Amino acid sequence: MSQSDLPTGLPAREPADAAPAGSAPAPQSSDAPLGTDPGEREPVVEVTEREVTLERSVRVGRIVITGIIAGAFIAMLACLFFPIEEGAEYTLGQVVGFMALIGAAIGAGLSGLFAILLGAVARRQRGTGVAIQSDVR
What we know:
Blueprint: E1 45-55, H1 60-79, H2 92-124, E2 126-136
Antiparallel strand pairs: 1-2
Helix pairs in contact: 1-2
């Protein structure tokens, strides 16, 4: 057999005439083809395809946190437009802090309602797709 007759184009390996003295021959695995190393087997890939339903969802936590921050910020800015009388029992810092708490609560409530409405709209948009699972052994 010449080198060009081989399908891989690699030179043929010459068999050893005799094993070294005092060594036992290497056992051949019954499941591996002759001439291959059992550690060099090709992986077995099992591919499974399934049709799945895709649903969109709303990230409620992010929407509510954004509403809390926006509500607090808007309420703090709004209280700065109203002057505090001389001799009042409260300071501007107290008013800003109290309005931030009220604004955050209102912002959380409104953004929670907004998230519920967005979730209802997003659930209407369903689709199907093909999921491919590959198991390699």
